[in-house]
Amino acid sequence: MTQTPTDAAWTELQTRFQELADLGGTLALLGWDQSTYLPAGAAGGRARQQALLARLRHERATDAAYGRRLDELAGRDDLSPVQARTLAVARKEFGEATRFPARFVAEFSQHVGESYAAWTGARPANDFARMVPYLEKTLDLSLQAASYFPEFADPLDYFIDQSDEGMTAAQVGEIFSALRAALVPVVEAVTAAEPPRTDFLHRRYPGQEQLKFGEAVIRDYGYDFTRGRQDLTHHPFMTRLGGHDLRITTRVKENDLTEALYSTLHESGHAMYEQGVAEELLGTPLGGGVSAGVHESQSRLWENLVGRSRAFWAAYFGKLRDTFPEQLADVTEGEMYRAVNTVARSLIRTDADELTYNLHVITRFELERELLGGRLAVRDLADAWHAAYEQNLGLRAENDVNGVLQDVHWYFGNIGGAFQGYTLGNVLSAQFYAAAERANPGLEADLARADFGRLHGWLRENVYAPGRLYTPNELVERATGEPLTVEPYLKYLREKYGALFS
Amino acid sequence: MTQTPTDAAWTELQTRFQELADLGGTLALLGWDQSTYLPAGAAGGRARQQALLARLRHERATDAAYGRRLDELAGRDDLSPVQARTLAVARKEFGEATRFPARFVAEFSQHVGESYAAWTGARPANDFARMVPYLEKTLDLSLQAASYFPEFADPLDYFIDQSDEGMTAAQVGEIFSALRAALVPVVEAVTAAEPPRTDFLHRRYPGQEQLKFGEAVIRDYGYDFTRGRQDLTHHPFMTRLGGHDLRITTRVKENDLTEALYSTLHESGHAMYEQGVAEELLGTPLGGGVSAGVHESQSRLWENLVGRSRAFWAAYFGKLRDTFPEQLADVTEGEMYRAVNTVARSLIRTDADELTYNLHVITRFELERELLGGRLAVRDLADAWHAAYEQNLGLRAENDVNGVLQDVHWYFGNIGGAFQGYTLGNVLSAQFYAAAERANPGLEADLARADFGRLHGWLRENVYAPGRLYTPNELVERATGEPLTVEPYLKYLREKYGALFS
């Protein structure tokens, strides 16, 4: 997998790659600091620094000489497979950065600013009508954006390709239809059963102890604290400040035992993915996670398939009770397991559980597909939203605040491509986990001993180390022996929730 | 003091200034993070990011078009005084960044690397002889460096001018001679007296409480936590991440009550200086502290003239005892005041007290002056060091480790200009403070009430707000009504230590 620099042209390219990566890491530091430790009065100056660095990076990423060098080298016939793929990814990124006319970028950017500002007023006023002209223009500009990439027949394919390279609306749509068909009855059954006891999750759990517990778990998982750290922010995230600097953040609620823990497990999955990319790919276009879906598969795998499993609680319930002996005195391991797997239908995506979250995503994906396909008019979107929620979740919001106005994405210029990765991640998490289990018989017993060596090792070798060396579809097939499929995820959900609530 | 952009050329220049400032702030963030929160494994990647940003900043700071624009504008006759001074400072910095041939910079830089590496081995081996050829070459290169600035008759004037613009070896030498003559008998008398009780400084003081106490004091001083913050590092420092982002760091020893407190007070002085620079100067070459000496005057003023005064302890001893009631149960306010003003002759600069520190600095300054003047050969430096310590401090190190090998500066390429600012700072701290007292009768009584409003206000108006609008010598004369003079400092020392130890 080593890249052999064959000559000076290739070496010069590596230098450019490394510069782009280092400017990206510096931008990430400016953003990390903004979210963690920036003094309130410094916000304006920080925004100016971020704009400057983003501009410097953009200038380098769109430099015509760089583009010519990429084209020249791509035409050669002595490239190694790694070199060929490196050039393919670099040229894809170069195209994304250069194909829009400057005038178009300026117009879109100004429109997004205006749309966002309007949304911050229209949302609390429950005034979707006010947003219709903005959304219509966003839709129009989005279709124009896609038109600069005529290699994609369906505009949605272009948007999906930006975050989940090579995946298509048809492929995702098929997966999502099958998933919805299977999910609706499972949710039906689970929510009809007696809800588990959750009172003890909301006792008082001091923040420092919660943080220490979560950090001890991810140290067991294999998150490398010599190449990362955890800090507190308003919204949890993972960020890449460098090839050896993958930081995560969390937030703590002293009256909610699950908030910090599951955000820590989630972000650690993103970070372990990036920490596991092969050393020789770092500083090149291949040196990072391959797609939104595969990235999310790792956060969901470590958060849900591991962190909400019976085996996990067999390993950790005793430790958690040692940390909080009074608060958990009257709680059993089984009660803890059931409590962290509570399922409830809700109107708000960001509050949803592991199971119903997918229905929120699928709803949005299908509405985007209709919008971009010209089969749904923006003025009918609020009603279509309510109808879809009724169909998919059996709920109808009493207003648009908890309906079509709830997420910022569409009002921030992102129609298409922003949501599907979450559910692709869930689907892939199970597909990868099942493959890891096939290769490592008795894996669940490892987890019950808090021994994550075989699981982490398999993921590192098959998912993390390759970085962007393969397309997402290729990676899935190489790692699991079959193309992207929803079956392992459905099997996982049926077995887990069947046993939980039958 | 407002800069009036007279035309497009001036506006373009402002944009360049702001970019240089923002790249500087980004570099400062990379460095701050390196010292505070960087994961150990990320050190290599961080060094590469720093080198890249430093190069990008250097390219902009030395851009020929920028230099031409500065020259053009400097030739105009319609400049406001602020514009004229802005151009003077910008051209000075441009000259410093461009006048050395690239070959010379590379040679000096390589030599510094080799010299530093040799010193890390020679120092523990007590082997000054090994360093002689390195130092000889450093001296030679330093003289060459100065020769690129023929406007300075004395090479030392060039080095002093880099950190203390407009000050000269003659001016500093005169101040230092007078200071030494006065200091030696004071130190003599003070160290002959019974040393104060200091046992209680070394009881156990939990770190968190120490930090909180220090932060409460500097909040009273007027350090603005909405435009700064304090974190922990190995060596305390102040850093400018932006015009509204002046951060300080400290370190805590649980068995030393003075370590964190006085480092916090010291760094807060540096930071309040920068926080006080007039808003309209930020993002221009005038938007920062004017010199090493004036900067140090503010750290020393808030650390020593305020923080080690009787009035300070009248205000804070009760609060400190409320924080640490058990540890300070048997201690009086007077004992605390005397303990933090202990004087002891020592061989090591970095361990020295307020009073004797100056003698360490003067010794180095005088040896540098002899070296650069060709009156002292490098091979005789170790002996000259011992003789100077005997004369100035009445002590002789038993080896060169605690002698000429103790400080990194000379072995890192800095002969001349690196030390004098510390003692200039002490001298200036008293001159500024005396002027503030004249303008604000009864100032000491304010301090004894922890009311720093008049002192901080006077300093902000007379020292901080102007930034680099005047040269250091001009600033001193405008603020205090007289040129740089050692008299107020000598008066302060005589009164304080006369009363303390008579």
From TrEMBL, chains A, B:
Protein name (Swiss-Prot/TrEMBL): Metal-dependent carboxypeptidase
Provenance organism: Deinococcus metallilatus
Keywords, sorted A to Z: Carboxypeptidase, Hydrolase, Metal-binding, Metalloprotease, Protease, Zinc
Molecular-function annotations in GO: metal ion binding; metallocarboxypeptidase activity
Keyword Zinc set for record: yes
GO BP, one annotated term: proteolysis
Active site: 267 (proton donor/acceptor)
Keyword ATP-binding annotated: no
Cofactor: Zn(2+)
Pfam family name, one: Peptidase_M32
Known function: Broad specificity carboxypetidase that releases amino acids sequentially from the C-terminus, including neutral, aromatic, polar and basic residues.
Signal sequence bounds: none
Listed CDD domains: M32_Taq
Gene3D superfamilies (UniProt xref): 1.10.1370.30
Binding site for Zn(2+): 266, 270, 296
Organism domain of life: Bacteria
